[in-house]
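Problem: given the chain below (314 residues), write out its structure.
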Amino acid sequence: MSELGDAAVSSPWVTVPRQAWADLATDGQLALDAETIERLRGLQDPTDERDVAEVYLPLAELLNLYRINHDQLYSDSYGFLNVAPSRTPFIIGVAGSVAVGKSTTARLLRELLQQSQGHPKVDLITTDGFLHPNAVLEDRGILDKKGFPESYDRRSLLAFVVAVKSGVPEVSAPVYSHVIYDIVPDEQITVSSPDILIVEGLNVLQPAPVGSSLALNDFFDFTVYVDADEEDIRSWFVARFMALRDTAFRDPTSFFRAYAELSDAEAIRQALDVWDTINRPNLVQNIEPTRDRATAILRKGSDHVISEVRIRRI
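Solution.
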């Protein structure tokens, strides 16, 4: 067993305790200040400067190693095939449950990678934009399964990622609003020739559905899964729901405006009902089973802080 906490030789993973992981960082030029972290972290997420230095900085450095070798591999391959070289963006997938902190992870990685050698252009999209509109979900009888794999326009999402990976100069995606809880009509986000694209979402590590030969994950160069015990995620979800009740839910245009008027007891009951009927089943049935498909797993403790990192070695 190595000082990094490596498991048996037969394991496909290197498991690195937090302090050993922090010691791997070598690039003292990469850093984020407290104000930037406050802007990037999600509601009720305690991520701070120490977390960035000890967890996300080493991860960004590892991602850069992958990216440099990715670029060299494609260059060598094009040369071997006598094919004119073309840009092939490096694509990172970030997955995990609702309320586990995957959005914070994606945003922090984007900020750090933009600062890295060569200052690459880094774009970030969430798969929320590829949810079917509420009208479609209602027509199919699955509005209560929003976030489940079947609630996404998987064909359009796959086409988007393939186009970016193929070097199409500009590729557009729909925009989702958490305020109106629906796709925003006639609004799109455009990704323009990124060096790196981060794709964040609940189900980005899903295998190909029956009848399809390709999965989204087939076009990712590195994937991250943010992991925690189910009971801890449940607690974080309820805490976030309570915080939203006092903030975003009070927006007059919010789909959830009625929740802002709930008492504490009523709001907790509502949050637990949403967890038990929607988020937990999606986590257990669809999200958690994809965890071991990731390249890196960030494991959180009950304090919402990453305690160890697992890196796939084979």
